Structures are given as structure tokens and as C-alpha cells.
């Protein structure tokens, strides 16, 4: 009997140690998915970890010092199993939230793209290029940006085009000054549309400033130092996508032509540091970002 009791306690202790590791992984992965604004969120997260460690130490104490009996052993063993089940469910929930919200964003984007035949997969192209640039950025730059937020911001950078009349979006000729004035409002309309989604708070300015230029002559004339790093990345991806995709008024340009143009506007329109990262990416990887349905 004593051996059985000890076996349950040892198994419970081992499972609890595994639970602590899984809980730490869970905390790290939720950092990228959920936004933790308030102080209380951090306290709850830390409290969970402290309690798990406390239970682990209690298991060890019972295993080594306390008087062992089968009831205590079973409570400890099934307690650790319960924590494991909760963690499995939390991971599943996290995965579902992540996939579903990105899927919903993709549906929304296909609505925008459908209104403007010239967009034809542009948002998805920009998202893929942005995340590729992010992957190749040095670690210290990556640390400044939440990759999940960047994924959403790049996918939805043009969501504000929903507020632009189709006659302007689809105009086959050059836009008049007045029409350009309306077109320039799309980043701010995008921010307004996303306002009810509190989880997207941190990407507001990224979307708002995706047409800003390093020389301060962008849509809203924002000086370089105030342009968020994420907006600078989206801007490089957006420029490459606009050059290499087919439009009703122009044929698609090749990768080499796009690189030449991007180099020309580096330092005036685009950020030199981000362009350098972009140019360091192998050509095949950049070309693979073109959405399948619009590959030429
Ligand atoms: Fe835009």
C-alpha cells in the first residue's frame, strides 16, 4: 500500500512540474495573442504561477516529510491531472481564438478587395511581405513589435477604403485633387472602423500612419521620428506589392524593377533600415508572398 501511495504522490509531483512549464509557455503565447492592458491582468497571471509553484512545493513536502495516506495521495494526484486538463482546454481555446479572429479579418479583407478590383489580393500580399520582413529583422527590432498585432495591422491596413466611394476607388483615370483629398482619409477611416475592437488598440497608429514618408511628406505630414516602426515595415511591403501587382491601369513590374524603384525612394519615402532588411531576404521567398490566385 505504501508503495502505491508513494507512486501516486511522485506521479502527481511530476505532472505538477510539467503543468508549471506548460503554464509558463501559455503565458508567453498569450502575450502575442491577447492584449493585457491593466495592471490587474499581470497580477492574475503572476498569481496563477505562484499558486502552481506553491502546490508543487506542497506535493514535494507531502512526498518527503508528511504522513502519507491514500486519500491525500489521490487528492494530490487528481489535482495535478485537473490542472493538466485545464491547461489543455486553455491552449485549445487560445488556438481557436487565434484562428477564428484571423479568419474573420480575412473575410473582411476580401470584402474590401472585392469592392476594388485593383486590390485583388493586395492586403494578403502586404501581410505576407510584412511578416517576412519581420522574420528577417534583427532581434532587437523584433522585440519592439508584437507579431500578432503586426499580422492584423498589415492585413487590415487598407480597411478604411470601405469608407471611400467606389467611383474614386475604381476610377480608371487619374484622381483629381479633391478625390485625392478623400482618398487620403482612408487610414483615419480604418482607425475609426477598428475602434470598437479594444484588442486592436495598439495597432491604431500603425494603420493610421502607413502612408507616411520618411521626409515628412506623407498623407498626414508626420515627422520621421513619430512614425511607428510597424508603419515603416507595412509601408515597404505596401510599396513592393503596389509595384509588382497587376492594376487595371498598369502591367505588373518584375522583382528587379521593384527593387530598383524601392532603392530610389529609400530615405525619402521609405525607411533605410527596413529597406536593408527587405533587400537581405532571398528573392524566392519574397516572390512566394504573391497570393496564389493572382500569380502571373
Ligand atoms: Fe493604404
List keywords for this structure.
single chain; about 300 residues; mainly alpha; Hypothetical protein af1432; 2 domains; 14 helices; binds fe (ii) ion
Assembly state of the chains shown:
single chain
Number of helices: 14
CATH topology of the largest domain: Hypothetical protein af1432
CATH architecture of the largest domain: Orthogonal Bundle
Hetero groups? fe (ii) ion
Identify low-pLDDT runs.
none
- Tell me the radius of gyration: 26 Å
Number of domains: 2
Shape: elongated
The average pLDDT is 87
Provide the CATH top-level class of the largest domain. Mainly Alpha
CATH-assigned homologous superfamily of the largest domain? Hypothetical protein af1432
**Helix content percent band:** 55-70%
Termini separation comes to 73 Å
Q: Report the sheet-strand fraction.
A: under 5%
Amino acid at each position: 500500500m505504501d508503495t502505491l501511495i508513494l507512486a501516486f504522490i511522485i506521479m502527481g509531483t511530476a505532472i505538477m512540474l510539467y503543468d508549471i512549464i506548460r503554464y509558463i509557455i501559455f503565458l508567453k503565447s498569450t502575450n502575442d495573442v491577447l492584449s493585457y492592458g491593466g495592471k490587474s491582468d499581470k497580477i492574475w497571471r503572476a498569481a496563477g504561477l505562484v499558486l502552481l509553484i506553491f502546490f508543487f512545493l506542497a506535493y514535494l513536502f507531502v512526498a518527503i516529510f508528511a504522513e502519507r495516506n491514500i486519500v491525500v495521495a489521490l487528492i494530490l494526484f487528481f489535482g495535478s491531472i485537473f490542472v493538466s486538463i485545464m491547461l489543455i482546454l486553455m491552449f485549445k481555446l487560445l488556438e481557436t481564438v487565434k484562428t477564428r479572429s484571423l479568419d474573420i479579418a480575412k473575410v473582411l479583407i476580401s470584402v474590401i478587395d472585392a469592392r476594388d478590383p485593383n486590390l485583388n489580393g493586395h492586403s494578403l500580399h502586404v501581410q505576407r511581405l510584412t511578416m517576412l520582413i519581420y522574420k528577417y529583422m534583427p532581434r532587437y527590432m523584433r522585440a519592439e513589435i508584437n507579431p500578432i498585432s503586426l499580422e492584423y495591422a498589415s492585413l487590415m491596413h487598407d480597411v478604411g477604403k470601405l469608407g471611400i466611394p467606389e467611383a474614386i476607388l475604381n476610377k480608371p483615370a487619374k484622381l483629381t485633387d479633391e478625390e485625392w483629398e478623400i482618398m487620403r482619409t482612408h487610414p483615419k477611416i480604418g482607425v475609426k472602423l477598428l475602434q470598437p475592437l479594444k484588442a486592436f488598440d495598439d495597432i491604431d497608429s500603425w494603420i493610421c500612419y502607413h502612408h507616411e514618408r520618411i521626409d515628412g511628406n506623407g498623407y498626414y505630414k508626420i515627422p520621421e521620428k513619430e512614425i511607428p516602426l510597424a508603419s515603416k515595415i507595412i509601408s515597404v511591403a505596401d510599396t513592393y506589392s503596389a509595384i509588382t501587382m497587376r492594376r487595371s491601369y498598369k502591367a505588373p513590374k518584375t522583382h528587379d524593377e521593384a527593387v530598383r524603384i524601392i532603392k530610389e525612394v529609400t530615405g525619402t519615402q521609405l525607411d533605410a533600415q527596413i529597406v536593408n532588411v527587405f533587400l537581405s531576404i532571398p528573392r524566392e521567398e519574397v516572390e512566394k508572398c504573391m497570393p496564389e490566385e493572382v500569380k502571373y
